[in-house]
Amino acid sequence: MKKNLLMWDESLFRDPEVFEIDHVPEQFNHRESQMRELAFQVQPGLRGGRPLNSVCRGLPGTGKTTSVRKLFGEIEESTRKLVPIYINCQIDNTKFAIFSQIYRKLSGHLPPASGTSFKQVFDAIARLLQKEAAVLLVALDDANYLLYENEMNRVLYSLLRSYEAYPGTRIGVIVIISDMDVDLSREVDARVSSVFRPLEIYFPPYGEDEIKEILSERVKQGMFPGVLSEEMFDLVVEQTQKSGDLRVGIDLIKRAGLHAEHRASRAITSDDVCKAYDFSKYLHLSSSVRSLKNEEKAVLRDIARQSLAEGDMNAGEIYKAVKAGMPIGYTRFYEIVKKLDAMRLVDLQYREGKGRTRVISLRYDPEKIIEYIGEG
After folding, report:
1. Over the stretch 351-376, which tens digit does the pLDDT of each residue have?
2. Which fold has domain 32-202?
3. Domain 206-281 class?
C-alpha cells in the first residue's frame, strides 16, 4: 500500500528558495520589452559614460524589482567598471542612509555609525569611484517612500549633480515606483528635473495566462511532482488574480506547501490553499507595517482601535485619541496620516459640512492591523 504521510525528514519542496519573494528566476518571461529598454538606458555606463536615467512604474507584483535585479546580475557578471547598487527605500529612506549603503557596496563596510557627516561619506564615495574609474548605477526601489519622507529631491540632487562637486563622477539612477498616484515630474524640483530627464518604463499587471505560466514554472522548479494538483493550482491562480499581486501567489504556494507538510501530507488540499491565503492576502500590510517608524505605528494602531468602535472617523477625533497617549503636534500627526494614505493603509477623504472635514477610514480589518503592529 502506498504511503501518503511524510516522514519527519521529508519535504514537499525540491527548492524552497524558488518561493522567496526576492528570488530572481533564471527563466524570467513576459517582461522582455521592459528589460530591453532598461538595457538600452544603461549601455552608456558599460562604455564608461553616464547611464541614462529611468523610472520603472507599475503596481506591486508586476516584475519591476525582478527586472532590475536580473539586469544588475548580468552587469556584475560582465564588468567591474559599471557598479550597480540596489537600495530598498522602504528600509533606507534618508539621504544619509542611502549614501551609507552606496559606500558599503564600494568599500565593503558601512561608515562609522556616529560622528560621520554626509559630506565625509560622499567624499569617500567619490574617491573610490575615481580610484577605480568606475561608473555608478543606483536603483531606488519603492522610491515613493522617499516622497513620503520628503527626501526625493535631496537624494536625486546629490546623485545626479555629483559631477559638480566631484568632477569625473558619473552616476545614473533607476527609480522604481509602485504608487500609481505619484507623478514624479511634478514631485521633483527644477534643479533635479534639469538633469534627471528619465525614460518612463511601464510594467502592466500580469494577465491570467501570464500568471499561470509564471507560477507553473515556479512549481516545477520548487516542488516535487504531484504535490500541487491542477485543480489546486487553478485555485491558487484564482486567488492570485483576486489580489492583483503576483507575489501573493508565490507566497500562497509556499505557505500552502508548509501547511501540508505540517499535516504530514504529500499533497496540497483546498483547505491548505484557503488557510494560506488568509495570511498571503495581507502581504502588503505586513511589509508596509515593517517599514513604519515607531511613531507612525502608534498612530496607525490608534486609528485601528478607534475604527473598531466607530468605523469612519474625522482627523480631529483621531488626533485627540493619539495625543492622549503620546506627545505629538497636529502638523506631525497629519503628515503621518497623509503618509499612511499614500501607502494605501488608510483612506483620507474630505466630507463637506460645517467646513471641510477630513475623514479617515482603514483599508484593512482593524484587528489585523493591530495584530501586525502589536498591542503596544
Report:
1. 766 556 788 888 899 999 999 998 76
2. Rossmann fold (3.40.50)
3. mainly alpha
